[in-house]
Specification:
Elements (H helix, E strand, L loop, with lengths): L11 E4 L5 H12 L3 E6 L2 H12 L5 E5 L5 H15 L4 E4 L14 H26 L9 E6 L12 H23 L4 E8 L5 H12 L6 H11 L8 H12 L10 E4 L7
Parallel strand pairs: 1-2, 1-4, 2-3, 4-5, 5-6, 6-7
The structure holds nicotinamide-adenine-dinucleotide.
Nicotinamide-adenine-dinucleotide binds next to α1 and α6.
């Protein structure tokens, strides 16, 4: 019998949206497991601070400013990752924004904005990721791509139609990419992660939205409402999500591709 291997020793990872709650937890989890990590975010300074805080633990984390909607920047970030850190084995497409409001209140501009950040980023990340990770690519070792979706990409949620439609697209983009990369023999796994309500800046925006659309009368009532729906009776932490990302990044998940992984404390269980 062999041991299950969750170590990322010798691997190189790229995490987008790395200054945010879930992104920074992913950078930390992957780096602590042994990966050399490139952390990127629209907010370059905040991302640099995440990298700096991990240097104190003797971990190899570099940072770059990146807008995930900018195609040229994707090429630069992938090149820098491969050249500076020596490869690319793990790509975590985590950057995203939340746009709430009811469908009838949403403007086309709102809808286009959230689709551009949450879906274009997945396309561009997977495109430039696969070009580097496939056998003849600059990194050339195959690997694991993890796309951040949401439970709102699986089930209907009031006030979430604009955002949830992007996350539904992320779920299926993941499955098509997994099928295609498998058929092409690239050795690249692609999976989606679907968090429930996680206590980050974005999680707080969801409570505000429940209030704005009149579903609850206070932020506190919004929290109680979500807690009441959650089997485990607590909201999620960024580390809860990072644990799943770490598993999918590792060789312990080597027979898993094209699948969706819910991390929601049972929010969608009943
Ligand atoms: N927090 C939740 O409850 C929750 C639930 C389900 C899914 N998610 C998903 O998890 C991911 C991370 O969410 P979070 O809660 O950590 O959010 P967050 O708001 O804490 O962090 C998001 C990060 O993405 C960055 N970002 C935004 N637009 C960008 C762009 N164009 N280019 C590069 N970076 C950009 C922000 O600067 C920020 O650092 C998102 O894809 C989100 O949709 C979050």
């Amino acid at each position: 019998m062999t041991a299950v291997d969750m170590s990322l020793e010798g691997k190189v990872a790229l995490v987008t949206g790395a200054a945010g709650g879930i992104g920074s937890a992913c950078v930390s989890a992957l780096a602590h497991a042994g990966a050399r990590v490139m952390a990127t975010d629209l907010d370059g300074k905040a991302c640099e601070a995440v990298a700096y805080s991990l240097h104190a633990h003797d971990l190899t984390v570099e940072s770059m400013q990146q807008d995930v909607c900018d195609e040229v920047r994707w090429e630069q970030v992938i090149d820098a990752t491969v050249n500076d850190l020596g490869g690319l084995d793990i790509l975590v497409n985590n950057a995203g924004i939340y746009v709430g409001g009811t469908l009838e209140e949403n403007s086309l501009e709102d809808v286009n904005r959230v689709h551009r950040v949450n879906v274009d980023s997945i396309f561009l990340g997977m495109k430039y990721g696969v070009l580097a990770m496939k056998p003849e690519g600059a990194a050339g070792q195959g690997g694991s791509i993890i796309n951040l979706s949401s439970v709102a990409g699986l089930v209907g949620v009031p006030g979430h139609s604009a955002y949830g439609s992007t996350k539904g697209a992320v779920r299926l983009y993941t499955k098509h990419a997994a099928a295609e990369f498998g058929a092409l023999g690239y050795g690249i796994r692609v999976n989606s992660v679907h968090p429930g309500l996680i206590e980050t800046e974005m999680g707080a925006a969801v409570f505000q939205d429940l209030l704005d659309i009149g579903m609850v009368e206070s932020i506190e009532e919004g929290r109680e409402y979500i807690l009441g729906l959650t089997a485990l009776g607590r909201l999620g932490t960024a580390e809860d999500v990072a644990g799943m990302v770490l598993f999918l990044a590792s060789d312990a998940a080597s027979y898993i591709t094209g699948s969706e992984f819910v991390v929601d404390g049972g929010l969608t269980a009943k």
